[in-house]
Amino acid sequence: MQTQNYMNPLIELRGISKHFGEGETRVDALRDVTLSVGAGEVVGLLGPSGSGKSTLLNVIGCIVEPSEGWMRLDREVVYDSQWQRPDLRRLRLEKIGFIFQFHNLLSFLDSTDNVALVLHLAGCPKGEAKRRAVDLLEYLQVGHRKHAMPAHLSGGEAQRVAIARALANRPRIILADEPTAALDSERAGIVMDLLRQLAVEQHAAIIAVTHDEKIIGRLDRIFRLRDGQLVDDGDSARA
Amino acid sequence: MNLAFRDIRHKLGRFVLTCLGLSLLLGVVVTMAGIYRGMMADALALPRSINAEVWVVQGGTNGPFAETSRIPGDTREMIARIDGIVAAGSVTFQPVQIDRDGQRLKLEVVGFEPGRPGGPVNLAAGRDITRSHYELIADRKTGLTLGDRLELGRDVYTVVGLTEWNVTASADPVVYITLRDAQDLQFDLTPPEARREAARGMQRTNTDIVNAVVARISPNIPVEAVVFEIGRWKHLSVLSQAEQEAILATVVIKHARHQLGLFMAVLTIVSAVIIALIIYTLTMDKLREIATLKLIGMPDRTIIGMILQQALLMGVVGFFIGAALVSTAKDRFPRHVVLEPTDLGILFGVVVVVCLLATALAVRAAVRVDPARALAG
Question: Is residue A59 part of a domain?
Answer without folding.
Answer: yes
